[in-house]
Amino acid sequence: MTRRPSRPLDPVRLRPARRLLDVCVSSALLLLLAPLLGLLALLVGAANGRPVLFRQTRIGAGGREFVLYKFRSMRKDCTGPGVTGGSDARVTRVGRVLRRLSLDELPQLWNVLRGDMTLVGPRPEVPDLARRYPAERQWIFRHRPGLTGPCQLRSRQYAAQLDGRPDPEEYYLRVLVPQRALRDAEFLRHATLRTVLTYLARTIVYVLRAARPGGGGS
After folding, report:
1. 131 to each of 28, 153, 167, 182, 194, how far by Cα in Å?
2. Which helix (H) or strand (E) is 119 found in, with range?
3. How far is CA 95 from CA 65, 160, 168, in A?
4. What is the mean pLDDT of residues 60-68?
5. What is d(CA 96, CA 88) in angstroms, rounded to the nearest whole number?
6. 33-61 pLDDT, tens digit each
7. Tens digit of pLDDT for each residue in 95-132?
8. CA-to-CA distance for 211 and 206, rounded, in angstroms?
9. 88 vs 156, which has greater pLDDT?
């Protein structure tokens, strides 16, 4: 098992313009989407019971842990691997719809507003898997994780690759993490305000395509 370096990671700070964009966009969306957030909370509660929100510790910039919020899309008290395949039996019927439309991610706007996350960046990882990243991939935990990003826009494709694997975590760490790290590195090398806005636009297209009939593919 590969452990995180014993010395603290040096966090990469966001440029002021990106932080200002994070605050403006996340606060505006939380206000505009408040009725939808309330409706989704009622829907999840009615279909799946409480708790409505899923809280999980993730790794932030510099290896600092924070609590990530999502609408709960899995059954309560279920066990299994730390990664979720496209056909994971733990996901509820309502949860599949939320995941397909990325609606389960909306509470993370609060994480963005708080500064735990940014609008566009690497996918936030859970501590157990983060500790098992190879040493040459640990650099990713210097950066603030994102609500969306180059890897999040391929989440359904990555999830489908986990289906049927005897050890999905091993496949995730051995195959998918290196692929994702390359995509994240390419974005981070050119993480300008223009690039961030481009990824936000791509995210809107990604969600709209998923909302179309038969649009649940990658």
Report:
1. 35, 24, 17, 19, 33
2. strand 118-120
3. 26, 16, 20
4. 95
5. 10
6. 999 999 999 999 888 778 999 999 999 99
7. 888 888 999 999 999 999 999 999 999 999 999 999 99
8. 9
9. 156
Give the pLDDT confidence score for residue 1 in this predicted structure.
42
**Tally of CB atoms within 10 A around 134:** 12
Q: Measure the CA–CA gap between 129 and 3, rounded to whole angstroms.
A: 10
What tokens appear for 107 in the block?
Answer: 């509470």
Full-model pTM? 0.89
| Distance in angstroms (rounded) separating the CA atoms of residues 85 and 163 | 5
Do strands 118-120 and 65-71 pair parallel, antiparallel, or not at all (unpaired)? unpaired
Round to whole Å and give the CA distance between 15 and 10.
15
Bridge partners of residue 118, in order along the sequence: 146
Token pair for 101: 């439309």
CB 11 within 8 A of CB 144: yes
User: How much of the chain is in helix, strand and coil states, percent to nearest 5?
Assistant: 55, 10, 35
Answer whether residue 3 shows pLDDT above 70: no
Using a 10 angstrom Cβ sphere, with 0-12 exposed, 13-18 middle and 19 or more buried, the burial of residue 190 is exposed
3-state secondary structure of 58: strand
Phi first, then psi, for residue 68 (nearest 5°) are: -95, 145
Category of 106 on φ-ψ map: left (φ > 0), alpha (ψ -120 to 50) or beta: alpha
Measured distance CA(17)–CA(186) in Å, rounded: 20
